[in-house]
Amino acid sequence: xxxxxxxxxxxxxxxxxxxxxxxxxxxxxxxxxxxxxxxxxxxxxxxxxxxxxxxxxxxxxxxxxxxxxxxxxxx
Length: 75
Fold this sequence. Notes:
alpha+beta; two-stranded parallel sheet; 2 helices; 2 strands
């Protein structure tokens, strides 16, 4: 698991983030991912990014999400 810079002698862990929606062709999903990266307290680890299962998995893999966390639907 990724760790943030130590504060007060303790390492702060990043919150593990999953995303539903916001895949290819969407605008706001990319904005949320950018904001999470800027804050650097979140790590995107799972996603169902499209209602089309193949597009959803492909988009998640493009974002470097491991295959077993790249979902074809939110269910």
